[in-house]
Amino acid sequence: MGTFCSVVKFENLQELKRLCHWGPIIALGVIAICSTMAMIDSVLWYWPLHTTGGSVNFIMLINWTVMILYNYFNAMFVGPGFVPLGWKPKNSQDSVYLQYCKVCQAYKAPRSHHCRKCNRCVMKMDHHCPWINNCCGYQNHASFTLFLLLAPLGCIHAAFIFVMTMYTQLYNRLSFGWNTVKIDMSATRRDPLPIIPFGLAAFAATLFALGLALGTTIAVGMLFFIQMKIILRNKTSIESWIEEKAKDRIQYYQLDDDFVFPYDMGSRWKNFKQVFTWSGVPEGDGLDWPVREDCHQYSLTIEQLKQKADKRVRSVRYKVIEDYSGTCCPLNRGIKTFFTSPCTEEPRIRLQKGEFILATRGLRYWLYGDKILDDSVLEGVSRIRGWFPRNCVEKCPCDTETDQAPEGEKKNR
Question: pLDDT for 125-157, tens place per residue?
Fold first, then answer.
C-alpha cells in the first residue's frame, strides 16, 4: 500500500486536469470512435474471430490502439521538461549570451523558450500542442513524433476495414435504375449470416468513422512529415523560424556574415539519434547541447539577442484612439477586421483610449505588440502583448519607423 501511495503522487493526479481541454477530448474521441468501429465492423460483418485472419486482424487493431494511446499519454503526461527555476549557467560570464526570463526568475538555457500556456521555460521547445494540452520539447519529442506516425498507420488499417465492410455488405444489393439508385439493407450475403444485420445505422456509423480516419490520416500525416523534416536537421519549429529571421536580418542590413545553425551534426542519422534512442530517454540533460566544430556554444542565443535588438529598432509606437474589448472577432470594428482575425492561439489585448503600444509585426487589419506599461500602475506585470485591430490605433507622429540600425550593422537601402 505504501508503494502504491508513493507512485500515485498528488502532482500526478493534478496532471489529469490536462484531459479537461478541448484538444485531448477531441483527439481521444477520434481514437475511440475509429478503434471501436473498426473492431465492431471487423468482428460482426467483415472478418469474424473464428478465422485465423480475423484473429490476427483483431490483434493488430488492438495493438494499434495500445501503441497510439501509450505514446499519446507519454507526450501529454511526461511533458517536455522545464528549465529549473532560478537556473544560471555554470560560468557566470556566459550570462551575457542568454536572455533572462522575468516570469521564471531564471536565464533561458540554450534552445529553451518561455511558453505562455505552460507559464514555464521549456527545454528545447518545439511548440505548444493543443491536442495534448502540453508543450512538445526535449523529453517528449520522440513520443509525440511516434504518435504522429502511429495514428495515420492505425487509421489506414481502420479505413481499410470500413471500406471492405461496406463493400462486402452492400455487394450485389445495389439496384441501378435510369433515375434512382436503391440500396437494399434488409439482408446480408455472408455465410454464415451475422448475428446482427448490417443496417442503416451501422452503415452511417461506419461512413462517419471512415471520414474521421481519412481526415486524421491526411492531417496528422502532414504533421509527421513536418516533424521528421526538422528532426533530421536537428531543429525545432521555433529554431527553424529563428533561422529564417536570421537570414532576413542579414539580408536587410546587407551583412557579410552568414548564420550557421549550430546544432546540425552534419548527418541525418546523428541528428535522428538526438531525439530517438533505444532506451526512450533523449540524450543529454536538456540544458547543454553538442554543437558543430565551427560554431560557438551560444551561437543561437547570440543570434536571438541580435534579433531582439533588431525587433526593438523596427518596432513602431502607436497610440490607442478607440477602446477595444479584447474579443477574438470584434463585430464593432468592421467586417474586414472581423473576418481577418489572426488564426492563432496568441492572445488579444484589451485597449483603452490614451494607452501606447509598441507594435512589432502585423497583418493588413491587425497588429501585434506590447503595451507600454507604467511600472507604478501595473506593479509586478512584466509584459502585456497580443493582437489588436489596426483601426483602434494611430501611429505616433513623432515616432515613425527608425532608420537607425543596431550597432555594427548597416541598413539595406
Answer: 999 999 999 999 999 999 999 999 999 999 999
Q: What backbone torsions phi and psi does residue 361 show, to the nearest 5 degrees?
A: -160, 170
Provide the residue ranges of all domains of the chain, joining segments of one domain with +. Answer: 9-80+140-231, 238-309, 315-395
All three cell numbers of 37, joined, read 468501429
Distance in angstroms (rounded) separating the CA atoms of residues 11 and 285: 22
Catalytic residue positions?
A: 129
Q: Which three cell numbers stand for residue 108?
A: 533561458
For the chain, the distance separating the N- and C-terminal CA atoms, rounded to the nearest angstrom, is: 73
How far apart are alpha carbons 302 and 188 in whole angstroms?
Answer: 70
Question: What region, left, alpha or beta, does residue 291 occupy, with left being phi > 0 and alpha being psi -120 to 50 degrees?
Answer: beta
CA separation for the pair 39, 48 (Å, rounded): 10
Q: How many CB atoms lie within 10 A of CB 231?
A: 20
Q: H or E element: which one contains 107? A: strand 106-107
Residues in the chain: 413
- Characterize 238-263 residue by residue with b for buried, 16 or more Cβ atoms within 10 angstroms of its Cβ, and e for exposed: bbbebbebbeebbebbeeeeebebbb
Take residue 316 and report the three cell numbers written for it: 513602431
pTM: 0.83
Residue in 290, 345, 272 with CA at minimum distance from that of residue 111: 290
Grid coordinates given for 38: 473498426
In this structure, what C-alpha cell is assigned to residue 64? 494499434
Is the distance from CB of 209 to CB of 38 less than 8 angstroms?
A: yes
CB distance 265 to 274 below 8 Å? yes
3-state secondary structure of 388: strand
Closest among 345, 336, 332, 353 to 387, alpha carbons compared: 345
Highest mean pLDDT among 217-226, 282-291, 401-410 belongs to 217-226
Strand partners for 361: 368
Per-residue cell: 393: 490605433
**Is 315-395 a domain of CATH 2.30.30.40?**
yes
pLDDT the model gives residue 4: 38
Indicate if the alpha-carbon torsion angle 95, 99, 104, 105 is positive or negative: positive
Q: What is the mean pLDDT of residues 77-96?
A: 92
Residues 6 or more apart whose Cβ sits within 8 Å of residue 264? 233, 234, 235, 271, 292
The amino acid sitting at 97 is Y
Contact 97, 298 (CB under 8 A): yes
Do residues 342 and 319 lie in contact, with contact meaning Cβ atoms separated by under 8 Å?
no
* DSSP classification of residue 75: I
